[in-house]
Amino acid sequence: MPVTMNINEAKANFSGMLAEVESRLATFTIMKYGRPIARVVPIERTRKIRPLPGYGTKIAVKGDLFADDSALWENA
Questions:
Q1: 44: helix, coil or strand?
Q2: Which residues lie closer than 8 Å to 57 by C-beta, 6 or more apart?
Q3: Tens digit of pLDDT for each residue in 16-29?
Q4: Do 12 and 37 touch, CB atoms closer than 8 A?
């Protein structure tokens, strides 16, 4: 549920507001003279892809990557 607050409240509680956005994924709407002017929302977290332990960072390729082997994939 989005929480609304005026500019003075947002300024006074900014670090606490950011802590709630981070931990509870809360959304805040900041108002000026009763009109919304900004929204503080959590960003989407992305997963980092890491190499599997023990497999190293190199891949050995056997054969020709650019050879035309389409005949091998044709239906008989």
A1: coil
A2: 51
A3: 999 999 888 899 99
A4: no
pTM over 0.70: no
Element of type H or E holding 11: helix 7-12
- Tell me the pLDDT tens digit for each residue of 29-53: 999 999 999 999 998 877 777 777 7
Three-state secondary structure call for residue 71: helix
Cα-atom radius of gyration of the chain, to the nearest Å?
26
Task: Give the three-state DSSP class for 63.
Answer: coil
d(CA 12, CA 26): 17
Residue 51 carries which side chain, given as an amino acid letter? P
For the purposes of burial, counting CB atoms within 10 Å of the CB of 28, is it exposed (0-12), middle (13-18) or buried (19 or more)?
Answer: buried
Name beta bridge partners: 34: none
